[in-house]
Specification:
Blueprint lengths: L1 H15 L6 H8 L5 H6 L2 H24 L5 H18 L1 H7 L10 H21 L9 H22 L12 H28 L1
Helix pairs in contact: 1-2, 4-5, 4-6, 4-7, 5-6, 5-7, 5-8, 5-9, 7-8, 8-9
Length: 201
């Protein structure tokens, strides 16, 4: 029943948006009693939060599938970027909701865990490109991570909104855009290594 409610919730979300989203309509679509959604999710926020957690899990799967079997760090980062964009393209409703924090329960354990795991995919990719697989990101490299996330996320939004239709480009462009990120990460890593060396002298 939980899966059926999540499936119906995604349909309602796609047709009516968050503002027109109701537990009653989700129950009707799933063919269950009006009380069933509240029993499983508590309220509208609970159901939307569960759907957002599913969105993060789908995003993780898309990035992991895209990078499967790739050992080279730069190719891995490119693949993860393509996987991120593919998730947005294939699941636009989940993508929009997953990052719409106004209607979600930020303290929900499942949402926090899934969001953290998705962030870790990007973080690990940046650390590998920087040649620092076991060190936490800080300083310029942390800024590079935010830059990378902003790039793939912003590109995904532009793609979904149709803003790129007139350019004749598609998600393949994300690979080219990430080249700048890769170069920036390498510069940051070199600079960080030099600073640590100077401190050790």
């Amino acid at each position: 029943m939980r899966r059926a409610l999540l499936a119906s919730a995604e349909m309602v979300l796609a047709e009516r948006g968050v503002e027109g989203f109701t537990l009653r309509e989700c129950a009707r679509r799933a063919g269950v009693s009006h009380a069933a959604p509240a029993h499983h999710f508590g309220d509208v926020t609970g159901l939307l939060t569960a759907l957002a957690a599913l969105g993060f899990e789908t995003l993780i799967a898309a990035m992991q599938e895209a990078r499967a079997g790739i050992e080279d760090p730069t190719e891995r980062l490119r693949a993860i970027g393509r996987g991120y964009v593919a998730f947005a393209r294939d699941y636009p409703e989940r993508f929009q909701l997953t990052f719409d924090w106004h209607r979600l329960n930020h303290e929900d354990p499942a949402l926090r865990a899934a969001g953290g795991a998705a962030f870790e995919e990007l973080e690990t990719a940046i650390r590998l490109v920087a040649g620092m697989p076991d060190e936490p990101l800080e300083g310029d490299l942390l800024a590079d991570l935010v830059h990378t996330w902003s790039l793939v996320h912003g590109f995904s939004h532009l793609l979904l909104s149709g803003q790129l239709d007139h350019t004749g480009t598609g998600e393949r462009v994300i690979t080219d855009l990430l080249e700048g990120v890769i170069a920036r990460v390498r510069v940051s890593a070199h600079s960080g290594a030099r600073k640590r060396s100077d401190k050790g002298m």
